[in-house]
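Q: Structure tokens for this one, please.
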Amino acid sequence: MKKISTLIIAATMAIGTTAAIAHDGSTGNADADKRIMKMKELGGAMKAVAAVAKGEAAYTPALNEQAAKIKMIAAEMGNLFPEGSGGEKTRSKDEIWSQPEAFEKAVADFDMAATGLVAAVETGDQGKIGAALGATGKTCGGCHKPFRAPKD
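A: Here is the predicted structure, written as tokens:
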């Protein structure tokens, strides 16, 4: 159970990190603005799953929709970073485009973890949801660390 708690904490930190990219203004780049909107959606869905994983909310079948949203965004993540959509306001590092194989692997890892999260949420089992959320959160960090600049 301690391992699951640690994974939930890690996933919650990833959620906070994802939410931290949100800001009030436009970047001036439609692709980047779309990406930021999707990241906000992702953060909201992760937060809903985390509430159940931490026992702050009861599982309901509606949580499956949140897990499906995470999976949907994971599946389109690679397309949210077209060439030219970086820049200081987005915190996207040039390594996304200069190291495409590494970035694609990070995105694929997230997509695979999101698939596991969907399956875990479908069970309604808090422990399974927490473990899958932790695994998914790790993949978020696996992309944020090498491909996202720190916040000023």
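A few notes: The domain at 2-147 is CATH 1.20.120.10 (Four Helix Bundle (Hemerythrin (Met), subunit A)). The chain has one domain: 2-147.
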